[in-house]
Write a structure and sequence with these properties.
The complex is a heterotrimer of chains A (308), B (293) and C (378). Chain B has 293 residues and is an alpha/beta fold. Chain B has helices at 53-60, 102-112, 117-130, 146-158, 176-191, 203-209, 227-231, 246-258, 274-282, 287-292; strands at 9-19, 26-37, 42-46, 68-73, 76-77, 87-90, 164-168, 195-200, 212-217, 220-226. Chain B has a 6-stranded mixed sheet, sandwiched between helices. In chain B, strands 2-1-4-5 form a 4-stranded antiparallel sheet, covered by helices on one side. In chain B, α2 (102-112) crosses α3 (117-130). Chain C has helices at 2-7, 12-42, 52-57, 60-67, 71-87, 91-104, 109-132, 137-165, 171-183, 187-198, 205-217, 222-235, 241-261, 264-273, 278-292, 295-307, 314-324, 330-343, 350-362. Classes of the chains: A mainly alpha (308), B alpha/beta (293), C mainly alpha (378). The structure holds adenosine-5'-triphosphate and magnesium ion.
């Protein structure tokens, strides 16, 4: 018989193995991104283009305020929709699929800590969402830019007589104030932040759910509760109104457990011409970072010892 | 065996049970199983369907945790991610990202193993050559046949230059020529001093390449040993004579008859196979079949 | 089966730990979240409250959409619906949809603007034209005394509510001014709102001019109006026709006042002291024309007047027309008027053109050389 030797070869193994390796995380993230790209998700850009061009046609006979507004509404609406769908469905589609297809076996039997896998997936999805939002923004801003100049020309054309320089400049100011402006970027960022939180929610759900459908449904429900919770609080408990202890308790639990996604909805205000102070954007970013951290951590707690 | 390398695989009193939903009793997949594999050895784990081979391997690789007992790889607990640094694993019926090409797949797993970009390039060509998938290098895995997937799985398992290779049914679903090649590859690994654990139904294959074999049934390791000792029928002794005349044979037979409790079962040419042994040890039925009836 | 089995396979302990983490951090995040929420409220990002009445106004899908971050889009959709209802002349629906757009996005001034416009102009005009075809007295009475005023009020209340929501914008005070000016014929209130509107940062300059115009119409506020109008007339870049007319009208008013409250000697005294005040010359001229009908003295006064560089250019027209009153000088005056008309036609009012036409026929100007070809229409 052979002699057993249980001296570990720690030196060799440990010197090679890093507890956290950004390059491994990046490999998983980029792989996720590639996967989604090769699933041809970017075809959605065609839909997006059709939508924003359609929005232009729809409001052709309206005032320029209405036309510029609907263009922004449709663009931001589509951005919110696509970003949220990519975040939730992408996460729900890929992680349970890895488990179902047992692709995960070959990944986790490499020296890859499970949280790296989770973070890699999340980053991959977020990267996809970011790239899609950038592409949509470019399209959106380009259309907006051309429309505002088009509208200016049309309005000048419609003026009776020879408009004075003052008239033109005030008209231009009026139109451009509702056209391409820096504030829109804050709107896009807020859309991204909300989608990032949605992705993190789906990540948590997908670590304990076992099917894609279940993950999507549960994530969507949470996503909706996240939107409705603060409004529900206002709705059920208008200021100064005393209510039953039980209702308060339930509302409190909901507010504690679920994220308040309503605070990311600044797009409506931005379209109507308000501006989000930078400090508020930092707050939202910080809050998103916090959610990403907590949800990644929770999903790791659930996933770390999951039987595969 | 060299003393300075720790035991490649050490499984001690491993038990793994799975709960059955809505029922009290549990499925015992692995039952108090112990085994150890020395560095450089090729170890074959054989057993019928549902006997716990894959479960054992999964515990060894940290995919699931043991209900009780322990398992180590080169002295490091399987629960530690670092222990995976020296292991390559080929799952049964491997399935990879089908939108990646062969080369991309290897590169992806290479990155997970922490290989440098330049190394990955070399290693990819080397491995694709080894598993003879050079021609399918830039084809997506969606278009790979089962045998090709098995081979890309093998290449993937080897990308990090592991010291231990765990192969779960490496030849399942592969045609004879293909499984021949896989066997040759295992021999090559053995020559390089790499430890291999494999599970299989194809017994001849195990017979051919394994230094030692463990037979697992209903989660228990029922027999273990070198091929030679296993194939021996313990309560029987075979005397193989050359050029023995009938006189001598008669003398021997008489001698045997005088002895109490000793029977001559047969004479003639000795022949047994692992297969008979296998069937004897497992009662000739697979667990899954029994469960159904 | 296997999938089901797997889903049962993680320990309940970990679920509890996860829940505990969520609860603990949930407590930590709540103050931060509600602070953020409050800041958003302060900045006007939370104006719409999904209460019972909001729920009743919106369809189910729209309500969910509005909650889910598509509030602006839903508002635009209702804008479209309002437009459709407007085309169908379904004023009840127009009003309902406009209420939705304005409550969903109250800081978007255009929503209020459109709402006020649909009520005070479109619906109002629709019923006015309907009343013109109505033979039924009772119906006519109902339309004129009840429906039309009610739409004006609705428009006005949309505009006033909107003005509260958009204090920085010039737009809704302007709309209110428009309603008072054009629908209620109330120059006093109109001028007040136009003034308010003109003070907004983004206000176009014409609003201040509208303010001046309305102010000039206010009886008893001529002093104030004259200050504003003359400032605009002398300092502004644009001299619109309205501004010229207002200026002329207001100056005429003060001239009349001077003439009525002063004797000619007093006026002469005044002119000695306030040489630069050209209005007194006009008063003197008016005096001579009125009581004594002494054109040459009036002309003399005007001669002095037009020497003053500050005197508005319409005095040159007045001067020339005065000269033309003396048949001996009519031809010379016509020459002056002709030059004036060709270089600055804007100083001629409708009445002046009628005068000019008379002069042309007195002098037998051939048709092709006439300045005024048809009836004095411009
Ligand atoms: N996740 C699981 N949940 C419940 N039971 C399981 C699970 N995985 C395996 N089992 C059960 O454990 C037993 C051992 O399964 P295992 O896959 O290890 O067998 P095996 O020897 O690899 O069989 P095969 O030759 O068919 O691959 C089987 O009865 C199986 O049904
Ligand atoms: Mg198996």
């Amino acid at each position: 018989m052979t002699v057993e030797n249980n001296e570990p070869i720690y030196n060799e193994l440990n010197s090679k193995f890093k507890l956290f390796s950004p390059s491994r995380v990046m490999a998983i993230a980029m792989n996720t991104f590639t996967q989604l790209v090769r699933m041809k998700v970017f075809y959605f850009l065609l839909i997006f283009s059709v939508l924003i061009i359609g929005a232009n046609v729809l409001f052709l006979n309206f005032t320029f305020e209405q036309e510029l507004k609907i263009l922004q509404d449709v663009s931001f609406g589509a951005m919110t929709l696509f970003a949220s769908i990519f975040s939730i469905v992408g996460t729900a589609l890929l992680i349970p699929k890895d488990i179902e297809d047992r692709t995960l076996y070959s990944i986790l039997t490499k020296p890859v800590p499970r949280f790296e896998y989770l973070i890699g997936k999340l980053l991959g999805i977020l990267f996809l969402v970011a790239v899609s939002l950038v592409l949509m923004s470019i399209l959106f801003f380009a259309v907006l830019f051309f429309r505002q100049h088009g509208i200016l020309a049309e309005e000048i054309n419609q003026m009776r007589g020879q408009p004075t320089a003052e008239q033109i400049s005030s008209l231009k100011e009026n139109i451009f104030a509702q056209g391409l402006r820096l504030e829109l970027i804050n709107g896009v960022v807020a859309v991204f932040l909300k989608a990032a939180v949605a992705a993190a929610i789906a990540l948590v759900v997908s670590t304990f759910a076992s099917s894609t459908l279940f993950t999507i449904i549960v994530s969507l429900v949470i996503y909706f509760i996240g939107h409705a919770q603060s409004m529900a609080l206002d709705y059920y408990f208008p200021e100064g109104d005393m209510h039953g202890a039980f209702q308060r308790f339930i509302a409190g639990i909901v507010a504690i457990i679920f994220p308040n996604l309503q605070i990311f909805n600044v797009v409506d205000g931005i379209v109507s011409g308000q501006s989000v102070p930078m400090s508020l954007m930092f707050r939202l970013t910080g809050l998103t970072g916090f959610y990403l951290f907590i949800y990644s951590f929770v999903s790791w707690v659930l996933f770390a010892k999951k039987e595969l | 065996m060299s003393k300075d390398l720790p035991t490649a695989v050490q499984i001690k009193n491993l038990t793994k049970t799975f709960p059955v939903p809505f029922k009290k009793e549990k499925v015992v997949a692995v039952d108090n199983l112990s085994l150890s594999v020395m560095p450089g050895e090729v170890y074959g784990l054989i057993g019928p369907n549902g006997s716990g081979k894959s479960t054992t391997m999964k515990v060894l690789l940290g995919l699931i945790s043991a209900t009780s007992g322990s398992s180590t790889v080169f002295g490091m607990s399987s629960t530690e991610t670092a222990s995976r640094g020296s292991v390559g694993f080929l799952p049964e019926n491997p399935y990879f990202y089908k939108y990646l090409t062969g080369a991309e797949t290897i590169a992806f797993y290479g990155k997970l193993c922490g290989l440098k970009r330049k190394v990955i390039k070399e290693r990819t060509s080397e491995l694709l050559n080894l598993v003879e998938l050079e021609g399918a290098r830039d084809r997506r895995l969606a278009g790979y046949s089962k045998g090709m997937l098995q081979r890309i799985g093998l290449a993937q398992a080897l990308v990090g230059r592991p010291k231990l290779v765990v192969l779960d049914e490496p030849t399942a679903g592969v045609d004879p020529a293909g499984s021949r090649k896989i066997r040759d590859l295992i021999m090559q690994l053995k020559d390089q001093g790499i430890t291999v654990i494999l599970s299989s139904h194809l017994l001849e294959q195990v017979q051919e390449v394994c230094d030692r074999v463990g037979i697992i049934f209903e989660g228990k390791l029922v027999r273990e040993g070198s091929l030679k000792t296993l194939i021996e029928i313990e309560d029987q002794t075979e005397i193989v004579l050359e050029n023995a005349g009938s006189d001598l044979l008669k003398k021997i037979t008489d001698l045997i008859n005088q002895e109490n409790g000793v029977n001559l079962i047969r004479s003639g040419r000795p022949r047994t196979t692992l297969e008979t042994l296998f069937l004897k040890e497992t009662g000739g039925e697979s667990k899954d079949v029994r469960n159904e009836s | 089966m296997i999938i089901l089995v797997k889903s049962k396979l993680f320990s309940y302990g970990r679920v509890l730990v996860s829940l505990a983490i969520l609860v603990v951090f949930g407590f930590l995040k709540i103050p931060f979240e509600s602070q953020t929420e409050q800041k958003l409220k302060d900045k006007g990002f939370r104006d719409w409250v999904p209460n019972m009445s909001a729920r009743e106004q919106l369809t189910q899908a729209s309500f969910i959409g509005a909650i889910g971050g598509f509030r602006s889009l839903v508002a635009s959709i209702y804008d479209l619906r309002a437009h459709e209802a407007f085309r169908d002349k379904d004023w009840g629906s127009v009003e309902r949809f406009r209420k939705v757009t304005t409550s969903l996005q109250p800081r978007f001034a255009k929503h209020w603007d459109l709402a006020a416009w649909d009520m005070a102009w479109n619906a109002y005009a629709y019923y006015r034209s309907k009343s013109e075809f109505s033979d039924d007295d009772l119906e006519l009475w109902r339309i004129e005394k009840m429906i039309m005023p009610s739409y004006l009020e609705k428009g006005l209340s949309f505009a006033k509510e909107g003005a509260k929501w958009t204090p920085e914008s010039y737009r809704l005070p302007m709309v209110i001014g428009d309603i008072y000016a054009q629908k209620y014929n109330n120059p006093k209130l109109a001028s007040e709102w136009y003034f308010k509107s003109s003070q907004a940062k983004d206000a176009p300059s014409y609003i201040y001019r509208a303010y001046a115009t309305q102010l000039a119409k206010c009886v008893g506020m001529e002093e104030e109006a004259y200050k504003v109008v003359s400032n605009l007339y002398n300092g502004g870049k644009v001299r619109t026709l309205t501004l010229r007319r207002d200026m002329e009208r207001l100056e005429a008013y003060f001239v009349n006042k001077l003439v009525q409250s002063n004797s000619i000697n007093e006026l002469k005294e005044m002119v000695k002291k306030e040489n630069s005040n050209y209005i007194i010359y006009d008063a003197i001229a008016t005096h001579y024309l009125g009581e004594e009908n002494n054109i040459s003295l009036a002309v003399n006064a005007y001669r002095e007047l037009v020497k003053n560089p500050k005197a508005p250019d319409f005095y040159r027209r007045k001067f020339a027309l005065l000269i033309a009153r003396d048949p001996a000088n009519e031809e010379r005056a016509y020459g002056l008027l002709k030059n004036m008309y060709l270089s600055t036609p804007q100083i001629f009012r409708r009445v002046d053109l009628i005068e000019l036409k008379k002069i042309e026929s007195n002098l037998n100007i051939p048709l092709n050389e006439k300045l005024i070809k048809s009836d004095a229409s411009r």
